[in-house]
Amino acid sequence: MPELPEVEAWRLMLDPLVKRAPIERAGPAHIATLKTIEPPLSALDGETFKGVERRAKRFLLPTGDEELVVLVHLMSAGRLKYVAPNGKGAKTPMFRVRFADGGELQLTEAGSKKRAGVWLLRPDALRAELAHLGPEADALTTEDVARILASDSRRLHSLLRDQRLIAGIGRAWANEILWAAQLSPYALSTQVGADGTERLATAIHDELQRGLELRVAGANDEKTYRVHGKLGVPCARCGTPIARVDFEEHTIYYCPPCQTEGRVLKDRRLSRLLK
Ligand SMILES: [Zn+2]
Fold first, then answer.
1. CATH of region 4-130, choose from 3.40.50.2000, 3.65.10.10, 2.60.40.420, 3.20.190.10
2. Rounded to the nearest whole angstrom, what is the distance from the C-alpha of residue 166 to the centroid of ligand 1?
């Protein structure tokens, strides 16, 4: 799933493109993709997008008068693409917005599971839709991080991914951030200490910034990640092969000497615990 750096890089690219021309026609949308009925998509016809904004992992496209906002969540397999006038796009995307100059914004989704979503919302409904989200991960101070860690006794990997506490981090950047901070993914949030909190706050900031710069430059996963998906690859800090462990519904990647004092983490999949 694209996380804060990926969505932000995407946003920067799409922002100038969606406001070049007024909307000629919004839709159609796949029945599984469009999550709202009222107002209808036709309410967008003739409006112009103000640009593309972002909240956590969501794209927000407000109209010029900000009376309507299109919210897009890509989930795992969704892609949002601008097709230039006369360009070659998908024939039947999950959702499309056609512009007066012939350009088109298209949401496509690979695979048979349709999980990506599009919402058309008025400002009050948008506020309600986003109300559960915590502060943006890239704007956190050390004090913010300390407060969040103290607020709940949780394993760090799980806490970092909780959008209600911190918005924008998923499993890939949780792996990258914890490696950079030299903290165990299984460490309890309330036992991190002052030094660890400082390292975590720095790592959140620096890793998301590093990710954004790489993604803006077009870097792929292989080039962007240092630990995520890198089982057996030598740790960039100590040379030990990167290890992996299943935790909840996720796979965690980590370096044992750098993060767990050399300990190998135990499988904490729910399915395994229930056996
Ligand atoms: Zn290491």
1. 3.20.190.10
2. 26
Output the CA 252–ligand 1 centroid distance in Å. Answer: 15
Look-up: residue for tokens 């694209």?
2
What CATH fold (topology level) applies to the domain 137-273? Helicase, Ruva Protein; domain 3 (1.10.8)
Cα(90)–Cα(94) distance, integer angstroms: 9
Q: Are 2 and 57 in contact, with CB atoms under 8 Å apart?
A: yes
- Cα 67 to ligand 1 centre (Å): 50
CA 239 to ligand 1 centroid distance, Å: 6
Give distance in angstroms: CA of 273 to centre of ligand 1.
28
| Run means of pLDDT, 10 residues per run, the chain, 275 residues | 95 97 96 96 98 97 97 94 96 96 96 93 97 98 98 96 97 98 97 97 98 98 97 98 91 97 84 56
Cα gap 179→168, rounded to integer Å: 18
Instruction: Establish whether domains 4-130 and 137-273 are of one fold.
Output: no
- For the record, the structure tokens of 77 come out as 């397999």
User: pTM of the predicted model, to two decimals?
Assistant: 0.94
Q: How far is the CA of 172 from the centre of ligand 1 (A)?
A: 17
Domain spans of the chain?
4-130, 137-273
